[in-house]
Specification:
Elements: E1 4-9, H1 15-24, E2 37-39, E3 45-50, H2 55-61, E4 66-70, H3 71-77, E5 82-86, E6 92-99, E7 114-117, H4 120-129, E8 135-138, E9 154-159, H5 163-167, E10 170-179, E11 181-185, H6 191-211
Parallel strand pairs: 1-3, 1-4, 7-8, 7-9
Antiparallel strand pairs: 2-3, 4-11, 5-11, 6-9, 6-10
The structure holds 1-O-pyrophosphono-5-O-phosphono-alpha-D-ribofuranose (PRP) and magnesium ion.
1-O-pyrophosphono-5-O-phosphono-alpha-D-ribofuranose binds next to strand 9 and helix 5.
Length: about 210
């Protein structure tokens, strides 16, 4: 019998809630953070614990059939992939922020300026749409420190509670998108495995309805 391969964030903000929702739909998986792979006991499913940013490519290549992933990551790296269900947790925004003392009040004010971000595609799309030219400085983490160390005039990163912005003396000037965890599938998924996804989706819908 075929098994559904599903990617879940290995560690980070989505991990716990992803495992929780699998449990709520009646799929028990050993939550082994040290393992990279685990099988479900009562559903033909294998969980692969992967790094967020790698998941879109694994989906595209059909290495995994499905993933629980932040929509923000899909928009940045997997705009071609299919969202099956929005899962209602890990809600966040991808926003532009500048130092509190800055005169800038919108993205337009960053014309010709430097923006530090881990989301270059998302920012570029937005800049193009708004006909604004800015210089992107791509960094992988601790983006909010960039203005303080003179690396950038503004940043674009995830805002969840807002505490990282606050701690770094930044103010949000533009929300580029709102995101939550989603279930996405591979374009290469087999018919058998798609049937398993349909089952999962059916269960998810009833769990999500119960949460309302
Ligand atoms: C993430 C994100 C923001 C912050 C947002 O960073 O990049 O910096 O969380 O959350 P908040 O609004 O609740 O403060 P993370 O702590 O994961 O570290 P990293 O950027 O170094 O990967
Ligand atoms: Mg950060």
């Amino acid at each position: 019998m075929s098994k559904l391969k599903i990617a879940v964030q290995k560690s980070g903000r989505l991990h716990d809630d992803s495992m929780k929702i699998l449990k709520e739909i009646g799929i028990s998986v050993d939550n082994g953070k040290d393992q990279l792979k685990a099988s479900a006991r009562n559903f033909p499913l294998e969980v692969f614990y992967l790094r967020n940013g790698d998941i879109p490519q694994y989906l595209r290549d059909g290495v995994v059939d499905a993933a629980i992933i932040g929509e923000n990551v899909l928009i940045e790296k997997g705009n071609d992939l299919t969202i099956v269900e929005r899962l209602g947790f890990s809600k966040c925004k991808v926003s532009i922020a500048v130092p509190k003392s800055s005169k800038a009040n919108s993205l337009k004010d960053l014309e010709g300026k430097r923006i530090a971000t881990s989301y270059p595609n998302t920012v570029n799309q937005f800049l193009e749409k708004e006909h604004i030219k800015a210089n992107l400085h791509i960094i992988n983490g601790s983006v909010e420190i960039a203005p303080n160390i003179g690396l950038a005039d503004g940043i674009c990163d995830i805002v969840s509670s807002g505490s990282t912005l606050f701690k770094n003396g930044l103010k949000e000037v533009e929300v580029l998108l709102k995101s939550e965890a989603v279930l996405a599938t591979s374009p290469k998924i087999s018919t058998d495995n798609q049937a398993l996804i349909d089952k999962i989706q059916f269960r998810l819908k009833s769990v999500l309805k119960g949460r309302e």
